[in-house]
């Protein structure tokens, strides 16, 4: 069963890449996400790829519970990556990340980021003392939302690296981000190509 398998591999699993899929073949729906995340307490890096575009929206409520159990079991995620996500539910994303106070790296690659998502990214950057890397490569961010990220970058305590490669939708909003990075003494990498 899944429970036995997860229990057996848990001590050795530090990096997990998982793709979203349609639940119609699964009797339990997306419940397994809660089991996988919750029981892998040695997990350091989690990558979720919504390559099929659209299933991530349905999975998020199970992720919230999974992250809660993950923290209760002694887990401490260092790097969280979302790829190809267009339907991020912001309160659920923040509920997941609240369970990861030691987060060091946040990647939202090829995602569609709305105002609330950008505001939450800014909050994570300013509140989480260990965040040193932000990767928004290829994501869709409207120019007027960039201020929310820029505000978080100004208060980021340890930001060293930011990736905005291929984020053409941000337009002149990039200037706010670059200006606020001037307040980051640790910055060594800014990729806006």
Computed Rg: 17 Å
What order do the helices and strands follow?
HEHEHEHEEHEEHEHE
Structural class: alpha/beta
Helix content: 25-40%
Cα-to-Cα separation, first versus last residue: 46 Å
> How many helix segments?
7
The counted number of beta strands is 9
Q: Could you state the oligomeric state of the chains shown?
A: single chain
Strand order of the largest sheet: 1-2-3-4-6-8-9
Arithmetic mean of pLDDT: 91
Please mark out the parts with pLDDT under 50 across 5 or more consecutive residues, or reply none.
none
Give the CA-based shape: globular
Characterize the biggest β-sheet. Answer: 7 strands, parallel
What amount of the residues lies in strands?
15-25%
Notes on the structure:
The protein is an alpha/beta fold and 193 residues long. The chain contains seven helices and nine strands. It has helices spanning 2-9, 31-39, 56-72, 90-98, 115-127, 146-155, 174-181, and strands spanning 15-19, 45-49, 79-83, 105-109, 112-113, 133-135, 140-141, 161-163, 189-191. The strands form two sheets. The protein has a seven-stranded parallel β-sheet with strand order 1-2-3-4-6-8-9, with no helix packed on it. A two-stranded parallel sheet has the order 5-7. Strand 3, helix 4 and strand 4 form a beta-alpha-beta unit. Helix 1 (2-9) packs parallel to helix 2 and helix 5 packs parallel to helix 6. The longest helix has 17 residues, at 56-72. The chain starts with a helix and ends with a strand.
Give the topology.
Elements: H1 2-9, E1 15-19, H2 31-39, E2 45-49, H3 56-72, E3 79-83, H4 90-98, E4 105-109, E5 112-113, H5 115-127, E6 133-135, E7 140-141, H6 146-155, E8 161-163, H7 174-181, E9 189-191
Parallel strand pairs: 1-2, 2-3, 3-4, 4-6, 5-7, 6-8, 8-9
């Amino acid at each position: 069963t899944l429970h036995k398998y997860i229990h057996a591999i848990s001590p050795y699993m530090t990096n997990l890449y998982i793709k979203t899929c349609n639940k119609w073949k699964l009797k339990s729906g997306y419940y397994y996400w809660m089991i996988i995340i919750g029981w892998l307490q040695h997990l350091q890096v989690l990558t979720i790829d919504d390559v099929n575009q659209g299933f991530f929206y349905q999975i998020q409520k199970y992720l919230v519970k999974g992250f809660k159990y993950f923290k209760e079991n002694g887990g401490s995620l260092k790097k969280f990556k979302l790829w190809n996500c267009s339907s991020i539910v912001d309160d659920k994303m923040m509920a997941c990340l609240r369970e990861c106070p030691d987060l060091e790296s946040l990647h939202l690659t090829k995602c569609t980021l709305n105002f609330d998502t950008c505001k939450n990214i800014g909050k994570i950057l300013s509140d989480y003392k260990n965040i040193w890397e932000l990767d928004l490569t290829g994501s869709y961010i409207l120019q007027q939302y960039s201020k929310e990220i820029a505000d978080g970058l100004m208060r980021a305590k340890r930001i060293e690296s930011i990736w905005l490669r291929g984020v053409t939708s941000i337009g002149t909003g990039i200037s706010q981000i670059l200006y606020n990075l001037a307040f980051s003494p640790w910055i060594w990498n800014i990729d806006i190509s």
